[in-house]
Write a structure and sequence with these properties.
Elements (H helix, E strand, L loop, with lengths): L2 H8 L19 H8 L2 E5 L8 E3 L3 E5 L4 H16 L8 H15 L3 H10 L3 H7 L4 H10 L2 H10 L7
Parallel strand pairs: 1-3
Antiparallel strand pairs: 2-3
Helix pairs in contact: 3-4, 4-7, 5-6, 5-8, 6-7
Length: about 160
């Protein structure tokens, strides 16, 4: 199946906030992207309590306490903010759209996501199989069409309810 037909099938009901900044079938790597784009990322241990990341529209800060998958997903989330022109905290509706967009950037191929569901016994395992954190796999599930969600539920192993 071509990348464009997969992308069309896996598109959410609402469009992504900003298009993914990489070519069709190339998997998005936020670390490689910031290196290539010259975006400054600082890993800090003094972000406000509860913050995983932040941006001022030019720079990105990540919480030093994040694990590898959390940092990858948070960096992608902050890149969506940066490319959307956000420089301050956003309302919940905008944050939700950013989360959805980040999930689609990281997991554009719904078939790969569904295949990972076949091996997972929990949300955490499904996320790990997809190289994302648990919130991101949940947002990717929300982006699926009704038939895709049904396929994810059917593919899931015993004890896992997507």
């Amino acid at each position: 199946m071509s990348p464009s037909s997969t992308a069309a099938r896996s598109a959410p009901a609402t469009s992504t906030l900003v298009p993914v900044p990489c070519a069709g079938d190339v998997r998005f790597d936020p670390w490689e992207h910031v290196r290539a784009a010259g975006i400054i990322v600082s890993v800090r241990d003094d972000l406000p309590n509860g913050f995983w990341g932040a941006t001022d529209g030019q720079h990105i800060w990540l919480n030093a306490r994040l694990g590898q998958l959390e940092a990858r997903c948070t960096l992608t989330h902050e890149l969506v903010h940066l490319y959307a022109g956000h420089s301050t905290r956003q309302p919940k509706a905008v944050e939700d759209q950013v989360r959805l967009t980040a999930a689609l950037w990281l997991l554009p191929d719904v078939e790969e996501v569904l295949e990972a569901a076949r091996w997972a016994r929990s949300w955490a395992e499904w996320a790990q199989e997809c190289s994302v954190d648990e919130p991101t796999i949940r947002w990717r599930m929300r982006a699926m069409s009704a038939p895709e969600r049904k396929a994810a539920r059917a593919a899931a192993r015993v004890g896992f309810s997507a």
